[in-house]
């Protein structure tokens, strides 16, 4: 039995609220249960120095957490003076995931920066962030299309992410904090709307896991991501 | 005529929503029109080193802004590696303002950290932050009282803040961004519920201002803060 | 009775010694009693990036304190690796104050950097710095005029600053350290030679203050700044 | 055909040279072809603050690269002033991988820090580092055992790592730089001597990959890691 | 002919003004011509962590330069966020030089921090700093002796420093900036009152120098330091 | 008797192994006994900003130490976030020493960066680094010559370095760590192949030293550097 009473393959209540920012070209407040992440997509005219003059754009992501998003207050990274290794690892993951479904040439010489800020955390912040970031990114591209700044298809597919893990010996989908902190195995999957795998990260927290177990987690992830992509489609329709 | 059509002494729509955080001991989402600040009060058992063993507590504040809270995306301070002078100035102001109404001995040897994070900015973020921070701080102290961690009266009074300025030659209350960026004079007032002045900051952006003009701004501030304190009282009743 | 035996409206002995630096285009060693600040104005040909190509100049200020300027040795900010919030707050104040009396278009596309370094501190370092910085800035502009680098009137007025506070229940002018560390209310005023207000900062250290008390402090400040402007005039005549 | 003429499931020439450091308690110079990593294990008596007094030890890892380990000289991280996101991601991975086979209670209250410094890079530095780090760690623990600092079994198993990827449409084992920079999919596997999976990281560099392709990569990895564990066994026998 | 018309073995006008700081336990404003350095010695009760409990004291030094001490304004190190290599090299030299004449056991478990801040620079700042720092240090120790904080002889000897160089082919003493920036060879010597050598630093700026030339520089240095020690004696008598 | 049984004027076993890096234009692994330093010379097309457009090149050096190069593990500078004063002092010395024998105009508008990384330390790392760096630099220049990137003579002479010290009252050559940590006087000499002096650094660790003692150290250094230059010649022949 999961602490949340969910079935093994049951997502938390997921909502995707668009246009939550007065300023951003695209924005989405994504909730996976009590995990709430504000995603904003900002169009910037400059591209990174190494990309200049190549007629291609770039999509990048930054990730942050409010100090009291968590059970214990964490020190503010701006005050510490640097981003933790965990933060950098997550924002690199989000950026790679989004770029996997963007045609950077069709985007043209500009950069879209997607900020994913965790307002409240209850496990799975990186997967919620990727799922919501896609919506913000999509709306930013539509904003550009409305102004004829892009002509061709820029977004090639959906992208969404979910965590899976082995909790009390059972593979389960979409771990919340209570499960995550006790899971034997923790894994994150990022997949496209058409089922292609973009990122797999699996970590044994305690005992190593077997190939068979990993196959079960991957199976759960496919189910979960399918549902998330459906929710993305509903949110923009 | 103000861009927002408000009367010279008219506040923006102000709301104070409590208990918006699953984790924090006290929290308040404060809105002054399109300026939205999430305030969380976190109880910490440690006090600053210089205060140890003195049977007194401390209240401190940190301030941050999400990168796309503003019209143009700003660089994330955690990524830059330091907090700007403006950020530090504001969080020092919030901390001083809150401490002015707290009996630190009655609080006992612990620290309350109030985080004020600007989700969306449209002028007046520091005054909204102070006004909302008081509510979060109050709920944190009530949380402690319910657990018999404090016995005596800790909060001595309300504290709230408002900006005033001279816009198009007219003294006006509660400047939004459109006014703030064009005001000749910008000032912030922090006052208690009983009308005592805790902080005054006045800056001539263009031409210096006269003593008479400053008196008019102070008059507006008294009116505005009176209304904010009423709203605080309603929010906690 | 004040610790220094001064009357409530009496400044400390103030001196403004010009041309104390072999290298700087303008310089002034300002003393407010035992508070000694070395102000140097440096002409630099570059302007900040955001001002390039606009035919306008810029005046900026930096503030520092020698480690043993104070009663206890403080850690050197260059060694700590960053400037404190207090330092940044003060140098922003000095810069804004000076710019309030400078015609930046008449200055032309260059920057004057005014460094205010506290050699010895006994309270009121920021007000002494502003008062002396005006003299250094003025001499730098005269240096430019002698070389025909500026033609029009660049300095529009004098600028000077003074602190006031409520000490033992009495409003007093120009607090030294002994008074400052025991004052109920601490305020700083920056005004022009013609009596216009440029900056007001008032802080209740203990109990909030009333509008009437603040009016008394402002009255003292006007008297004090009038005298400081007279001393500036004498120093450059 | 692979640039190196290797078969799809063929490792590069791998060597594990022990006791290469005069000072370290355990050390290993590991070579995967032209990728050379110096691993040193240092016994330290202190543990991280959050572990004090718990009768348990800790194993941590740091990763670095000499500036000219690569084809183009990279800026030295000590000179830049911070470690890149990539560096932090890798050293977190190495530390987690090693801890997966260590009985931290049997280690006792001390810390082993394993430094993995890339002397020369040609792809696969993180997998070489993990494979060599195990040897250095093992020798450090034997050093402790010889001094009766540990009594029980501390190392529970071997740990080794290898990369796999899809190069020119074919799944291949142990990518060198020429392959890595052109692979469609890049993945790293960390497994124990008994075949348990500890870490899986798979990233689509271009097109997403399928579940079937991922299964092929995992199969290759199992073969490769089996061989690496055999080499570890030979090196310490 | 030297730019300053001095003879080859002639020092600039040197003055050592004591007790220039209201706060420091010992202080000296040293001038070598237009090079002015403020030296303050601060007694601190704490010693560095690695020295605790050893009944011995420590003497350390920090060096700084005001931004406009030089012909062109330099960036403030506190604003840059770190001390330059040159600054660190000089403050390490000053510290070592002072410790060479201090009996650290006789000092007892405390630390004296000597700050050397260059108010105005015209070459030879490090040698002026060492020469003045000795006077500040001596007065700090006398301050302690007057309070019976030290009993035994703490200062074992005088210490002073001077630069020498080869200018236009001629060995000269005490280079000012005009000479220093054109010298073929630049060297600094630190010696005790009894003629012992504590530090020698010689650098060929252009062509290497010969053993004979170096002998001439050393000879000049001995003369110059003898005079500086005489001046120190006069200043404290 | 020296701990290593060497005669007073005897170097440790010195080897200079060239072409140890697959990537660098020039490289040398230098060993002075148990002190091992990897020197790589990297050709970079950019020059420092202040040198642009002057048809001259630049040679710079960086120095680092692996964390467990020493008896106790040191904190990694990249992790601390800055280079120590010692590191900066040494890399400035290496750079100056190399530039003393390079014709920067003949090099043309490019920069050679020489990285000296201490793999294992046993005293004398800076002198080994300089001696090996010359070989790496020389091979980098030959690499350029083979590609007709330089035409004229760029290297004007050999450069090598050695330490000397007074150990148990006797002047000795090439101190290892056991001697270095107990020497009364520590000095480093950098000289050219033709015997010119480029750098002299002498420090009294305990009692000051006399002019005569310093002469003896210089004599030893000349002998030692002569042998090092012979070894350099053999290594490149």
UniProtKB/TrEMBL annotation, chains A, B, C, D, E, F:
Function: Phosphorolytic 3'-5' exoribonuclease that plays an important role in tRNA 3'-end maturation. Removes nucleotide residues following the 3'-CCA terminus of tRNAs; can also add nucleotides to the ends of RNA molecules by using nucleoside diphosphates as substrates, but this may not be physiologically important. Probably plays a role in initiation of 16S rRNA degradation (leading to ribosome degradation) during starvation.
SUPFAM superfamilies attached to this UniProt entry: Ribonuclease PH domain 2-like (SSF55666), Ribosomal protein S5 domain 2-like (SSF54211)
Assigned EC number: 2.7.7.56
Pfam families: RNase_PH, RNase_PH_C
Protein name as annotated: Ribonuclease PH
Domain Exoribonuclease phosphorolytic: from-to ranges: 10-140, 159-223
CDD domains (alphabetical): RNase_PH_bact
Annotated InterPro entries: ExoRNase_PH_dom1, ExoRNase_PH_dom2, ExoRNase_PH_dom2_sf, PNPase/RNase_PH_dom_sf, Ribosomal_Su5_D2-typ_SF, RNase_PH, RNase_PH_bac-type, RNase_PH_CS
Family: Belongs to the RNase PH family.
Record-linked PANTHER family: EXOSOME COMPLEX COMPONENT, EXOSOME COMPLEX COMPONENT RRP41
Keywords annotated in UniProt: Nucleotidyltransferase, RNA-binding, rRNA processing, Transferase, tRNA processing, tRNA-binding
Positions annotated to bind phosphate: 86, 124-126
Quaternary state and interactors: Homohexameric ring arranged as a trimer of dimers.
Gene name linked to the record: rph
Catalytic activity of the protein: tRNA(n+1) + phosphate = tRNA(n) + a ribonucleoside 5'-diphosphate
Coiled-coil spans in chain: none
């Amino acid at each position: 039995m999961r602490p949340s009473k969910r079935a093994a393959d049951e997502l938390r209540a997921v909502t995707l609220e668009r246009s939550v920012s007065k300023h951003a070209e695209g924005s989405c407040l994504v909730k996976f249960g009590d995990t709430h992440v504000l995603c904003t997509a900002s169009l910037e005219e400059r591209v990174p120095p190494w990309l200049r003059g190549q007629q291609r754009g770039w999509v990048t992501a930054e990730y942050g957490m409010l100090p009291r998003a968590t059970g214990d207050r964490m020190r503010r990274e701006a005050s510490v003076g640097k981003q933790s290794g965990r933060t950098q690892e997550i924002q690199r993951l989000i950026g790679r995931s989004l770029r996997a479904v963007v045609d950077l040439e069709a985007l043209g010489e500009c950069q879209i920066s997607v900020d994913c800020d965790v307002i409240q955390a209850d496990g799975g912040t990186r997967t919620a962030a990727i799922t919501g970031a896609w919506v913000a990114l999509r709306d930013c591209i539509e904003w550009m299309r409305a102004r004829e700044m892009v002509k061709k298809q820029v977004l090639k597919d959906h992208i969404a992410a979910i965590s899976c893990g082995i909790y009390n010996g059972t593979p389960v989908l979409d771990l919340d904090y209570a499960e995550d902190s006790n899971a034997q195995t923790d894994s994150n999957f990022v997949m496209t709307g058409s089922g292609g795998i973009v990122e797999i990260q699996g970590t044994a927290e305690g005992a190593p896991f077997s190939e068979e177990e990993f196959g079960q987690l991957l199976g759960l992830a496919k189910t979960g991501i399918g549902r998330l992509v459906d929710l993305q489609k509903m949110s923009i329709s």
